[in-house]
Design brief:
Layout lengths: L18 H6 L3 H4 L1 H24 L6 H45 L1 H7 L4 H20 L9 H25 L7 H25 L19 H17 L1
Helix pairs in contact: 3-4, 4-6, 4-7, 5-6, 5-7, 6-8, 7-8
């Protein structure tokens, strides 16, 4: 599968950018300790500026407004971090690692969310939907320059909100930010809304009649997506038998 990262604006990459995911899946510290330290500082500052206030201090009447406001502010950080990742890895390695890294980060969602009180099946569905939309828009990347501006604006807005929500959930699930159940559920609801908008935007750009490429082939770093999905499915079957 060709990911066409060179021709694709970084703003259209969705990714769970936490200190955990950057170090564990991108292994940035092994490649550039200096850039890794800079990225960690940026992500820690973003956590304190926007994620901690939203998840620990926000009142119900202000939650939706602050979610949207913080998502826009956080979008600048995620684009800068993605730019740094691309600079360290180069386009070739970045495009090879991108989807498999996102898939591995999302694979932690169901169990992490279930442990804090969310529905396991809902989280598995969210995981699958986010990965599917991300793969489709990444493969479409070389054609984005031809997209009508209104459609592209809708896509970018949806990705901003989706990335912010997914990152907030990741910070909850890995224990970085303890949050009460009502805020966790509210974050999950807003993230699902943003994910639906993201899926709709992707569908509006991609011809549904055109066959999509299989999720295999060029993703050979640390295994391909097919083997990863097989492991995920195996894990789900095991849980159902308990």
């Amino acid at each position: 599968m060709s990911l066409n990262v060179e021709a694709m604006p970084l703003t259209t990459h969705t990714l769970l950018l936490t200190v955990n995911t950057v170090e564990k899946f991108w292994k940035l510290g092994q490649r550039s300790p200096v850039v890794s330290a800079r990225v960690i500082r940026m992500l820690e500052q973003a956590k304190q500026n926007w994620f901690v206030p939203l998840l620990t201090q926000t009142q119900p009447t202000d939650f939706d407004r602050l979610f949207d406001e913080f998502a826009v502010k956080y979008a600048r950080v995620r684009v800068e971090v993605l730019s740094l990742l691309l600079g360290v890895l180069g386009p070739g390695e970045f495009k090879t690692r991108y989807v498999i890294t996102l898939a591995k980060a999302l694979a932690q969602f169901p169990q992490g969310g279930a442990q804090v009180g969310l529905n396991l099946q809902d989280l598995e569905e969210m995981q699958k939907r986010c990965l599917k939309a991300s793969v489709e828009i990444t493969d479409f990347g070389q054609h984005l320059q031809l997209v009508e501006p209104g459609l592209l604006k809708s896509l970018l807005h949806a990705i901003e909100a989706c990335d912010f929500g997914m990152t907030a959930l990741a910070l909850i699930f890995d224990g970085s930010i303890p949050a009460p159940l009502w805020r966790i559920r509210k974050t999950s609801d807003r993230t699902n809304q943003a994910l639906s908008s993201y899926e709709d935007s992707v569908k509006a750009l991609i011809d549904p009649g055109k066959p999509r490429p299989p999720l295999r082939g060029s993703l050979n770093i640390e295994g391909d997506l097919d083997s990863l999905f097989a492991e995920m499915s195996k894990g789900k079957r095991k849980r159902k038998t308990h």
